[in-house]
Write a structure and sequence with these properties.
heterodimer; A: 443 residues; alpha/beta; TIM Barrel; six-stranded parallel β-sheet; three-stranded mixed β-sheet; 54% helix; B: 211 residues; Methyltransferase, Methionine Synthase (B12-binding Domains), Chain A, domain 1; Rossmann fold; 2 domains
C-alpha cells in the first residue's frame, strides 16, 4: 500500500471503530453514530485538505480543566479512576467538542507511587493535591553516556535510565545485557542477576505497576467506548517526540543538551539519528494497534528563543522531520503541538508533503502560520489561555470569529485552544465551541 | 590580554578563556581584575542576547564558562570585591508551579546586568515573597509562572503584598508561559515582560538606572 492508502485505511478504522474488547463499537443510537461519523469526517477533510469540510471542526484540548470543572482535585483524578472518568465524561458531554483527548491526562498516581517516579512531581507528591503534575528536570543521562545510548538505546533505558527515574527500579542497574543469552553457555551466567534480591524487588514493583496500569487502562477503555458510542471521537491515542526533545527534556535536560551542542555536537547529532527510528516505531505501533491515524507529538525546545535559526536547522528540524516522514510513510498523521511561539520556524517547517499533518498552534503568529504551514497542513488551536481564564465570553467570541476569518478559508483549520490549560471559565470554553459551530460554516 | 578574556568569553571560546585565566593567575595578577574582565565579557553576551545574536544555548554556555572562571579565580581572592549593584530584585516562580527554565534565564540576565537578585526558587508561597521584600527592601518583584494555575497564584501573591502594606513600595512584573497583559491586569501586577530582555528593561526603568 502507498502511504496515502495506509492513511486512508487508518481513517477508515477510526470511522468504523472497535470497542475495547475488539468488537464493532455499538453506538448509543443512530443519531450518535451519525454524529460520530460526521465529526470524524470533518476532521479527516480538514487534515487531508482534499475537500472542504462541511463546517469548521472544533476541539477542546485541556490539561486538568475537566478535573477542576467537575469539582474534584487533580489528586483525586489520579487515584480514583471512576472519578477521573466521571470528570472527563462531564466535560465532553457538557461542551460537546468535535475532538477530545480522552481521559488520559491524569494517568495513574498509584502506578507512579509503586515505582517511586522521580522525573515528575504529582499532586500530593511534591506539588499540592490541587496542582497538576510537573516535570523535574535533571541530568538523568550524564554527559559522558552518549556512547552507551548510541550503542544500545534499549539497554541504556532498562539498566541506566529507568533505575534513575524510578526509585523502585534501582535493582535494574544490576541487569545483564540480554544479548548475552545466546545459547547454553549464556544461560546460567546471565540469569544470576535475576536471582538477586534487589533485582527481584524491582521486578516485584514492575509487576505491581503493570497490574495497576491494566486496571487504569480498563477504566480508560470503558470510557473510550462510552464516549465514542455517544458520538464523540477521541483525537489522542499514542505519542512520539522530536529526538531533540527526547534528549533535551528527560535525558540530558535543557542545560545539558545546550552544553552538548557546544562541547559534543557530533555525539548529540548521532544520538538523535539513533533515536529517530525508535520514535517512528513508537508512533506507528500505537496507531496500528489502536486503529487510529493520529499520533501526538509534544514539542518543546525548538520554540522561538530556545535556539537560533541556525541551531534549529542543524539540531532540531532534521530528525524531527525524519520522525514525521517515517510516521507519514506508514499512514500515520503526526499531531505536533507547537506550544509557545514558533513564528520564526514556520517557513522551515513547511517542508512536508500536503495533507499529512495536524499541527497544534499556540501563540505563533497565526496569520503567518496560515500562509506557511497552513498551505500544506491542517492546523488547530490559537485560542489563548489568558482570555479563556480571565476574559469574557464576548472576548472569546470575537477572538474565535477573527480566527475563523483568518484561517478557515479553504479548509485545513480546526478551532481550538492553543495550550493545554488547567484554568478557564466554563462560559469561555462554551463560547469557543458555540461560536465555531455557529460561525464556522462554509457557505 | 585583558581584552582577550573579555572577547574570548563573549565569543564563547571555553578552552581559550580558561587558559587565559590560568595564565593570568600564574602571572600573579589581581584576581578581582580577572573577574571584572569576565563580567565585561558577560555584559557583551547579554547585549548579544538582547539583539538576538545569541539565544538560550549561548547564554547557558556562557554561564557555564563563567562558572569555571569563577571557580579558578575564587580561591585566590583575599579581599572582598566591592560590588556596585544597581538595585535589589526579589524573584521566584509562584506557588503550585515548579517550572524554572524561564525564571532562571531572567534571573541570569538581571544578574549580568548588575542587579542583586534574590531568587526564591520555585513553588514559592506568597508569604515568602512578602518576607523577602521586608527583609531586603527590594523595590522590584518578579513573578514567574508557566501553568495557567499560576494566574491565581500570582494574583494571591500580589494581594499578599498589598495586605502586608508593601504594594506602594514595590513594582511587580510577571512573565512566563501563558502570561500576557490580560493576566497582568487580572493579577494586579504592574507589568508583563514577554521575555528576559523585557524583564531587564522593566527593572532598569523602575530602579532608575540608565541604559
Amino acid at each position: 500500500m502507498s502511504s496515502d492508502e495506509k492513511q486512508e485505511a487508518l481513517f477508515q478504522k477510526w470511522l468504523t471503530p472497535k470497542d475495547s474488547q475488539g468488537k464493532d463499537l455499538k453506538f448509543q443510537n443512530p443519531q450518535a453514530e451519525k454524529a460520530y461519523k460526521d465529526r470524524v469526517t470533518i476532521i479527516k477533510d480538514a487534515i487531508q485538505m482534499k475537500k472542504l469540510p462541511d463546517r469548521v471542526p472544533v476541539f477542546v484540548a485541556p490539561s486538568f480543566f475537566p478535573v477542576y470543572y467537575a469539582g474534584i482535585t487533580p489528586q483525586e483524578s489520579m487515584y480514583d479512576y471512576d472519578k477521573c472518568c466521571m470528570a472527563f465524561k462531564k466535560f465532553v458531554m457538557d461542551f460537546e467538542p468535535d475532538g477530545n483527548l480522552g481521559a488520559y491526562v491524569p494517568g495513574s498516581g498509584r502506578a507512579l507511587e509503586i515505582l517511586d517516579y522521580k522525573l515528575y512531581s504529582w499532586p500530593g507528591h511534591g506539588v499540592s493535591p490541587n496542582a497538576s503534575y510537573q516535570a523535574n528536570e535533571g541530568e538523568y543521562m550524564k554527559a559522558n553516556e552518549y556512547d552507551a545510548l548510541i550503542d544500545d538505546p534499549t539497554n541504556f533505558f532498562s539498566n541506566t535510565y529507568l533505575p534513575r527515574v524510578f526509585g523502585a527500579l534501582e535493582g535494574f542497574k544490576m541487569l545483564p545485557a540480554l544479548t548475552g543469552i545466546l545459547e547454553m553457555y549464556g544461560v546460567a551466567a546471565n540469569f544470576i542477576p535475576f536471582g538477586l534480591p534487589p533485582v527481584q524487588a524491582s521486578y516485584k514493583a514492575f509487576f505491581e505497576a503493570g497490574a495497576e496500569a491494566l486496571k487504569w487502562m480498563g477504566a480508560m477503555g470503558a470510557w473510550n467506548d462510552e464516549i465514542a458510542a455517544a458520538g464523540f471521537p477521541i483525537i489522542a491515542t499514542g505519542y512520539s517526540k522530536a529526538p531533540f526533545d527526547v534528549i533535551g527534556d528527560t535525558l540530558r535536560g535543557t542545560r545539558g543538551i545546550m552544553l552538548d551542542m557546544y562541547r559534543q555536537p557530533d555525539k548529540l547529532l548521532e544520538a538523535m539519528e539513533r533515536i529517530t527510528p525508535l520514535m517512528i516505531k513508537m508512533g506507528v505501533n500505537t496507531a496500528q494497534m489502536v486503529g487510529h491515524p493520529l499520533i501526538f507529538m509534544p514539542l518543546h525546545k525548538g520554540a522561538d528563543g530556545f535556539l537560533s535559526d541556525a541551531q534549529f536547522k542543524k539540531f532540531y528540524w532534521p530528525t524531527f522531520r525524519k520522525v514525521m516522514m517515517g510516521l507519514i510513510a506508514e499512514g500515520v498523521v503526526p499531531n505536533p503541538a507547537l506550544e509557545g511561539k514558533w513564528t520564526t520556524r514556520l517557513e522551515v517547517m513547511q517542508d512536508i508533503p500536503k495533507g499529512k499533518i495536524m499541527w497544534m498552534i499556540d501563540q505563533s503568529d497565526i496569520a503567518k502560520a496560515k500562509k506557511t504551514l497552513g498551505k500544506v497542513a491542517c492546523m488547530f488551536g490559537n485560542v489563548p489561555s489568558d482570555i479563556l481564564a480571565v476574559g469574557t465570553p464576548q472576548q472569546v467570541k470575537d477572538y474565535v470569529k477573527k480566527l475563523i476569518d483568518t484561517c478557515a478559508k479553504g479548509g485545513g483549520f480546526i478551532v481550538s485552544n492553543g495550550a493545554f490549560f488547567d484554568q478557564a471559565k466554563a462560559e469561555n470554553v462554551h463560547a469557543v465551541v458555540d461560536t465555531t459551530k455557529e460561525y464556522g460554516v462554509y457557505k | 590580554m585583558a581584552q582577550d578574556l573579555v572577547n574570548t568569553l563573549a565569543d564563547l571560546k571555553e578552552q581559550e578563556a580558561i587558559e587565559i585565566v590560568k595564565d593570568r593567575l600564574d602571572a600573579g595578577e589581581d584576581p578581582l581584575k580577572i573577574l571584572e574582565d569576565a563580567r565585561k565579557g558577560m555584559e557583551i553576551v547579554g547585549n548579544r542576547f538582547a539583539s538576538s545574536e545569541y539565544f538560550i544555548p549561548d547564554l547557558v554556555y556562557s554561564g557555564e564558562i563563567l562558572k569555571e572562571v569563577t571557580e579558578l579565580v575564587k580561591p585566590k581572592i583575599t579581599k572582598a570585591a566591592e560590588s556596585k549593584k544597581l538595585g535589589k530584585i526579589v524573584f521566584g516562580t509562584v506557588a503550585g508551579d515548579i517550572h524554572d527554565i524561564g525564571k532562571d534565564i531572567v534571573v541570569f540576565m538581571l544578574d549580568i546586568n548588575g542587579f542583586e537578585v534574590h531568587d526564591l526558587g520555585v513553588d514559592v508561597p506568597a508569604q515568602k515573597f512578602v518576607d523577602k521584600i521586608k527583609e531586603t527592601d527590594a523595590p522590584v518583584v518578579g513573578l514567574s509562572g508557566f501553568l495557567t494555575l499560576a494566574f491565581d497564584s500570582m494574583k494571591e501573591t500580589v494581594d499578599a503584598i498589598k495586605t502586608a502594606g508593601l504594594r506602594d513600595k514595590v513594582k511587580v512584573m510577571i512573565g512566563g508561559g501563558q502570561m500576557s497583559d490580560e493576566i497582568k491586569n487580572y493579577t494586579g501586577a504592574d507589568a508583563y515582560g514577554k521575555d528576559a530582555m523585557a524583564g531587564v528593561s522593566l527593572a532598569k526603568k523602575w530602579i532608575g538606572a540608565s541604559q
